[in-house]
Amino acid sequence: MKAQKILKKKKKKKKKKKTLLNHSMLGSARMALGELELELHHFIPNLYTFYTLHPPVIPFLSVLIGVHIP
C-alpha cells in the first residue's frame, strides 16, 4: 500500500510539471502575438480601420491576445 501511495504522488508531480509547461507556453505565445501586433502598428497606422475591413479577424485575435477591442 505504501509503495502505491508513493507512485501516486510521483504521478501527481509529473502532471503539475506539464501544466506549468503549458502555462509558460501560453505566455510565450501571447508575448509573440503581442510583438506581432506591434509590428502591425508599423505597417498599418490605424489598426482599428484594419479590423473594420476584416471583421472575422476581431474575435480570433482578441481571444488569442487577450485584448478586447471596444
UniProtKB/TrEMBL annotation:
Name of this protein: Uncharacterized protein
Organism of origin: Penicillium thymicola
